[in-house]
Every structure is written in structure tokens, then in C-alpha cells.
Specification:
alpha+beta; 27% strand; 802 residues; 11-stranded mixed sheet; globular; 14 helices
């Protein structure tokens, strides 16, 4: 990419997001050679577990107005300036897209001597699955000649930390892919690594130069990190509540800790169980004094477990114990030592176990520093939906905790950006915040994972390849979603050609009759009893209704994009495949005996998922769609669904995840007035004391799973009815579905300003007030009639019965 084009793209993107100024990058650094070197610790592990401190003193004639630097590391860095937190990173990527952070250090600099210090760590084979790596290294590049004094080279000093290691086990059962617990021995730790003067200067060494830094555009260095600028803002970093003591052992009276310090005598064991009230993602920071050789263990959990290993009601404490990831600290006896893990933790419950030896230990305080993507909640909804605020707040908390430098399926268990989860997360972000930056990152990151066959990986970044081919189809749909919500035509044009490999791979697996043939790898559709390991039923040669209709959805979305920006011939070919596949499903998989689509032509099993997709994608004739969905709804409510008095066979039930697609089908078929009655599973989770939405019904592994947070999106789009009516959200369609509701008021952010809708039942009609920002037009659809909308506020009286 040329320098001029790259600058244009960066400035266009800054206009699209609107929420924050773009990070500056000196044009000379885009194509020209960087002067900074990647540096490492000599005579230390390159790829194995290691924690390192880097530091350099710089002298400035005066405090600068700005001092921009670009920083990266492998695996991660934590940067301090004059003892103050400056930033952390880099945001995860692969070696061909290794991100660097751009930071203005000026607010922390002063005239005279300044200390730049970084903690860099590599967790080796114990690193999170989402963490890719080359070898341990650190890089800092000044943006202009004024900042070159800070460039990394042999003038930096480095020391390996001997007091930090990793816990032997993760302390959990079930699939776990996030980072390990940490072990810190304060007696061997470096405490003044970021101070003006260190106490053990003789143990610091000149850094080893391992190669010059270079951007991906330049490709002129022999290092393996091809640097690209991270376009995301810094993660939120603010002090929050760590929890309240709800159970204690080994003390005579209930402690006030962490609100007040706690003195623990020598030769004592104390256990404190803290309840934060809600789940959170944060860096715990424990400050201690004295108590040399005392061991302190922090255990983090989403919920407590009973003797059978069940979670039950998350608010219950009696008879329950904690299991989970843990960090262990050993005190060196110093005053006000602050212990903090290198990566944030997820917890509602945090247990502090302290075992003192020959000296008393004083727990000074336990703080938490919240960490997540800095989304700003701009949407809102109010109305006479029971417990609406609890539903909304719980969903928004779930979405926030599952969004960091990437979207994440679960902040406790995996921290991986799966396409199936991410599609829903991105839509929530667009509708609730208007911030599309993390959604854009997700689209481009998944694109980076494409293999020669044309498919994306199921999750990315990931050092462990995994393939769920249906998720490649959902990535195509993600691009279409982005196109509708975000005014970013360059990204859509650039990415569209990469979708063709996905479509072509699937097209090559079509059977001659138009149904999808057998595909390889993991064909995940949903977690349900009838889908073994999540795979929808297939015959020896395929024929799956689920997979065929999912392919139809991707074809439909890709055809619209091709028609607008790509190949009319491809768009026409995609439409032909849609027609052929739909015809095959209606000839071979439709079971007229029961008024439902079977999972395969053999008609041995039936699922709610297959029928929901068939309705949403217009495989089912319009006149059949409502009847099909009513049978699905009867099935999920445990009622006997019938056709002409004959019972319909049982259907595999939908998970929380797949009910997202049920919402789309209800709206498409004209049954969206039933939406509020479909929220029972979320009310049931509230009754269990959950403060975030779970991965699946009990027993569930994860208590915080973003794919279950879609009611926040549904309430705005299905109930309040606010939708983009044209690409880039250049116009709006408002089609509310109020059912038995008497009032609803909703706000959705838009690049031009907020969209505000309000409906209130007044005897025999609804009073509607719609406010659109300047420059935005649209329409209101009510009872089959369309009313034009213009910028500003308009009031309409609408008949009941929509």
C-alpha cells in the first residue's frame, strides 16, 4: 500500500468511528526504515517462560507538549514512565500482523531526567491459546527525531525477573484456554524496576539487539514481527471494587478488609471469601506489609460449587466452596509491597488464603483495576417489560466483559475470538455504542486466518488452529452486517474478494441435487441434545438442512455485496445456487406429514434450528412460515405440536446462542410481537443469581458468554424496531413490535446523532414520537403502512393492532 493511500485510509477510518481521534503515525515511518531495534535479555530464554524488565533514562531540556512513541513486545509489555502506568499491549495478532501501540508519554514526562521502564513477559507453552508468539522481545520507536532518544537499542538496560513464575495447574476442570495463574516470590522479586534508581544496578545488563523493527509495509528487516499499527483505543483502566467479605475463617471477628487494613498474627491461617456482587474483569492489586515468608493465595471464580460440583444459585454461599484459577504471592517482609498479576482476572468471588510464618502480616488494601474495551453505552430502552433494567444491565455487562483487545467468547475460560460469538457481539456493539472499531478489528483478524483452501479459522488470533467451516460462512455474514451499520466502503471493497474463497469451498461441496454435501472438520451448529458435539445431523453424503440453509444465508449476503462492489456474474451465480438449494430442501427435506423440515432427506430427526433458519432465509414459502414457527415455539415450550391433529415429532431445542436466529425469524415472519414472551430463559438465569448470561442452561461451564447477550440487540431492533434501511446506516427503518406492551422508549446511536423513538398506548391508539438527527431520513412501518420520517422530531397517532 502506498504511503498516500495508507494515510487516506487512516483518516477515513478516523471519520467513520467518530468517537476518538486517530492515533498519529509519522508518515516517514510508514514506508521508511525504522531506527529502533528489537531487544532482549542476553543469556535468557528466548521462547520459554520468562519475565524481563527493560529501562532507560532520558534527559529532556523541558517538558514536551507531546512525546509520541510506538511500542510493542512479544508476548506482552507493561510500560511505566517515571513510575506511572502509561500503557500495556500489544493487542493480539499474528506474526504477519504484529500490532504496536501508539502512546503520548508527554503527560508523564518532566524537564530533566526521566525513566522509561517496561515489564515484558513470555508465558511460553503456557500462554493463552489466543496468544501467538515468535520469541521474547521488546521494541519502542520514537515517532519523530524529537523522540528518537527513546528508541530501543543496546543503550537500554535489562534484567530477568527471578521472582515470578507460573502455577503448575490452572485449578479448573473442563476446556480452559486462557492464561495460567502466577506465582510471585517477593523475596526474589525486583521491586524498584521502574524507580529513578535501582538497588541492584550490578544485576542489570545492556540489552541484546536481535533485529531492527519494521512495519508490514516496509518489509525491510530480518525480524519476524511485521508491525501494523493498532487502531483500537487503549483499554479502560480504572479502579473498582474488589469485593466484600462474606465468609471468614481463622479470625475472631468479621474483618472490614478490604475496606480497612487487616492484621494477621504470626503462625496463623486465615481465609476470606469476597463477593464482588457482580462478575468483573480486572487486575487485582494486593498491598501488604511485613510478614516475611507468608504465603497469600488469591483464587478467582465466577461462582461457588456445592459438594456435588454444581453451581446452583450464584448468590448462595453456605455449604459451597471455591475452585478456580489462582495466583500465589510470598511476602518478602517489605513495607507496602504491591502484588499484581501480569494479566487481568475474572471473578465474582475472590478467596484470599493467608498463611503466616514467624512474622505478622498486614494486608493494607486490595484494589481492582477494571479492564475492558472502552465502550460507551449510548443506547437505552425503557418500557413495561418485566425486569427490563435487570435484563438490559446483565446483557450489557456480559457484552462488556467479553470485549477487550478482541471480542472473547468467555473472559474466564477461553478469551478467544470465535466467529459465531463475535458476529452477535459486533451487532450489539454497533447498536448499543455506535463504535465499530472492535467489529472492524474482528473482521480483519478473521480474514488474516484464511488458509489456502479459502476457509477462515473458527477463532483468531489463535496459536492452535481450529476449523469450524460454518463459522467461515458467518464471517461472510459479519461483513454484510458491518456494511449495513458502518459507513466504511473501503474495508468492504477490500475484504469482499476474500469471501469468494469461502463461497467457492462450500460450492465445491454441494451435491448434484443442490443440498450441501459432507464437509470436514467441526461442523458446529448449536449446543443441543440432538446435535452430537454440536454437529447438525447428516447422512453419509451430507444433505443437512441446517448447513444448506446456513450456506444460503452467506450466499444471499455475498450476492448483495457482489452486486454493489464486485462481480455481477458471481451475484447471479450465487442467486442460482440459492434457488437450487431452496428447491432441493423443499423437495427432499420438507416433511408434509408434520409441517416441518427434517434434518436430512431420511427424515429421521427434526430440529428447531433447521426450521428457524428455513423460515428466516425464505426457504419456507411465506404462507407456511408462521405455522412452522408456531410449531417450533410449541416444541421449545414442551407442548405437543400438531398438524391436522397429528403430533409433530420432538425437535432438538435451541440454546441461548441460537435464539438470536429465532429472533430474526420471528421478525421476518411477522411474529415479532411474540418476542417478549421468549425471554423466559433469561428470567430463569436472573432467578439463579447470574449477573452475566451463561453459555448454556445448567449445568454450564461458563457464567459469562457473549453469544447469550443478544437480547440487548433484540430489544432495540425487534421490539423498538430500529434498523439500518440502507448500507452505512444512511437511512433508518423503524418497525416496532410492541405486542401487549403499553409503552416503550428507545435510543440508538448513529454517526449523525441519536435516534430516539417513543410509543405510548392512549386508549385506542399509540402516540408515537420519533426524533432523527440532522441528515438522516427514514420510514416508520406500522400495521403494514409506511410513514416517511425526516430529521427532527415528528409525532404520529397510530392505530392499535400493529
Amino acid at each position: 500500500m502506498s504511503r498516500v493511500l495508507l494515510i487516506a485510509v487512516l483518516f477515513f477510518f478516523a471519520g467513520v468511528i467518530g468517537a476518538q481521534d486517530a492515533k498519529p503515525l509519522n508518515p516517514a515511518l510508514i514506508d521508511d526504515k525504522w531506527h529502533a531495534q528489537w531487544i532482549a535479555c542476553p543469556d535468557a530464554p528466548q521462547k520459554d517462560v520468562g519475565v524481563f524488565y527493560f529501562r532507560k533514562e532520558i534527559t529532556l531540556a523541558s517538558a514536551p507538549a507531546h512525546f509520541w512513541v510506538h511500542v510493542s513486545a512479544d508476548n506482552r509489555f507493561l510500560l511505566h514512565v517515571n513510575g506511572q502506568y502509561a500503557d500495556e499491549g500489544p493487542a493480539r495478532g499474528d506474526l504477519f500482523h504484529w500490532r504496536f501501540e501508539t502512546i503520548d508519554l508527554a503527560p508523564m514526562l518532566k524537564a530533566g531526567k526521566n525513566v522509561l521502564a517496561a515489564t515484558v513477559w513470555n508465558f511460553g507453552t503456557r500462554a493463552p491459546v489466543a496468544q501467538m508468539t515468535n520469541r521474547s522481545g521488546f521494541m519502542l520507536q520514537g515517532d519523530t527525531t524529537a523522540e528518537e532518544i527513546a528508541d530501543t537499542d543496546a543503550s537500554w538496560w535489562v534484567k530477568q525477573e527471578k521472582g515470578r513464575g507460573l502455577a503448575e495447574t490452572n485449578g479448573v476442570s473442563g476446556y480452559y484456554a486462557a492464561g495460567p495463574g502466577e506465582v510471585v516470590d517477593g523475596r526474589a522479586a525486583e521491586w524498584d524496576w521502574d524507580a529513578a534508581a535501582v538497588s541492584d544496578a550490578a544485576e542489570w545488563h545492556a540489552a541484546e539487539v536481535i533485529g531492527r523493527a519494521a512495519t508490514r509495509e516496509a518489509q525491510d528487516a530480518d525480524s519476524n514481527w511485521e508491525l501494523v499499527q493498532d487502531l483500537l483505543p487503549a483499554m479502560e483502566h480504572r479502579k473498582v471494587y474488589a469485593g466484600k467479605a462474606v465468609r471468614f475463617e481463622g479470625l475472631g471477628a468479621r474483618p472490614e478488609f478490604p475496606a480497612q487494613p487487616l492484621e494477621i498474627p504470626a503462625n496463623t491461617h486465615v481465609t476470606l471469601l469476597l463477593d464482588n456482587g457482580v462478575l468483573q474483569t480486572a487486575y487485582p492489586e494486593l498491598v501488604m506489609s511485613g510478614g516475611r515468608d507468608a504465603d497469600v493465595r488469591l483464587t478467582y471464580a465466577e461462582a461457588l460449587y456445592d459438594a456435588k460440583g454444581d453451581k446452583g444459585n450464584r448468590n448462595e454461599i453456605a455449604g459451597r466452596h471455591i475452585e478456580g484459577v489462582a495466583d500465589t504471592f510470598t511476602s518478602d517482609g517489605g513495607e507496602r509491597r504491591a502484588y499484581q498479576p501480569l494479566w487481568w482476572r475474572t471473578w465474582r468471588y475472590l478467596q484470599v488464603d493467608v498463611t503466616t510464618k514467624s512474622a505478622a502480616l498486614r494486608l493494607e488494601k486490595l484494589d481492582a483495576w477494571f479492564s475492558a474495551y472502552p465502550f460507551e453505552e449510548k443506547a437505552s430502552i425503557a418500557g413495561d417489560i418485566p425486569d427490563l433494567k435487570k435484563l438490559w444491565d446483565t446483557g450489557w455487562r456480559t457484552a462488556r466483559l467479553c470485549a477487550h483487545e478482541t471480542y472473547m467468547d468467555a473472559p474466564y475460560w477461553e478469551q478467544l475470538q470465535y466467529v459465531g460469538d463475535t458476529r452477535i457481539q459486533a451487532l450489539i456493539s454497533y447498536a448499543v455504542t455506535g463504535d465499530s472499531r472492535l467489529g472492524r478489528q474482528a473482521i480483519t483478524s478473521i480474514e488474516d486466518s484464511i488458509i489456502p483452501e479459502g476457509l477462515t479459522q473458527s477463532r483468531y488470533p489463535s496459536r492452535l488452529p481450529q476449523f469450524i467451516p460454518p463459522f467461515s460462512l458467518l464471517w461472510v455474514d459479519m461483513l454484510h452486517d458491518y456494511w449495513m451499520y458502518v459507513n466504511d466502503e473501503p474495508l468492504v471493497r477490500e475484504t469482499l474478494p476474500r469471501t469468494r474463497g469461502v463461497i467457492d469451498w462450500y460450492a465445491s461441496h454441494l451435491r448434484s441435487d443442490g443440498l450441501m454435501g459432507r464437509v470436514k472438520w467441526w461442523e458446529f451448529g448449536d449446543w443441543t441434545s440432538g446435535y452430537e458435539d454440536g454437529d447438525p445431523p447428516q447422512e453419509a453424503d451430507g444433505g443437512s438442512t441446517f448447513l444448506t440453509v446456513q450456506f444460503i444465508e452467506a450466499l444471499r449476503d455475498a450476492a448483495e455485496l457482489e452486486k454493489q462492489y464486485g462481480s455481477p456474474e458471481r451475484a447471479a451465480a450465487y442467486r442460482r445456487m440459492i434457488e437450487n438449494a431452496s428447491d432441493a430442501l423443499n423437495r427432499l427435506n420438507w416433511d408434509a406429514r408434520y409441517g416441518a423440515y427434517a434434518d436430512t432427506p431420511a427424515k429421521r430427526s427434526y430440529s428447531q434450528q433447521a426450521n428457524v433458519l428455513a423460515v428466516w432465509q425464505d426457504v419456507a414459502p411465506r404462507e407456511e412460515q408462521q405455522a412452522i414457527l408456531r410449531r417450533v415455539l410449541a416444541s421449545q415450550e414442551g407442548k405437543e405440536a400438531t398438524l391436522d391433529g397429528k403430533p409433530v415429532p420432538p425437535m432438538s431445542a435451541m440454546s441461548y446462542y441460537f435464539r438470536f436466529y429465532l429472533s430474526r425469524a420471528l421478525e421476518h415472519a411477522g411474529l415479532a410481537d411474540l418476542y417478549v414472551s421468549q425471554l423466559t430463559p433469561w428470567y430463569d438465569m436472573l432467578k439463579l443469581g447470574l449477573t452475566t448470561w451463561a453459555e448454556k442452561p445448567e449445568p454450564t461451564r461458563s457464567d459469562c458468554h457473549a453469544w447469550s447477550a443478544h437480547p440487548n440487540y433484540d430489544l432495540l431492533t425487534v421490539v423498538a424496531g430500529i434498523h439500518p434501511a440502507a448500507p452505512g446506516f444512511s437511512s433508518v427503518r423503524i418497525e416496532p413490535h410492541l405486542g401487549s406492551l403499553h409503552e416503550i422508549k428507545a435510543t440508538m446511536p448513529h454517526l449523525k446523532g441519536p435516534i430516539v423513538t417513543e410509543f405510548a398506548l392512549k386508549t385506542h391508539e399509540y402516540a408515537a414520537t420519533i426524533t432523527l438527527p440532522d441528515g438522516l431520513n427514514g420510514s416508520l412501518v406500522w400495521s403494514g403502512k409506511e410513514y416517511p420520517l425526516h430529521p427532527g422530531t415528528q409525532t404520529l397517532n397510530l392505530p392499535t393492532g400493529n
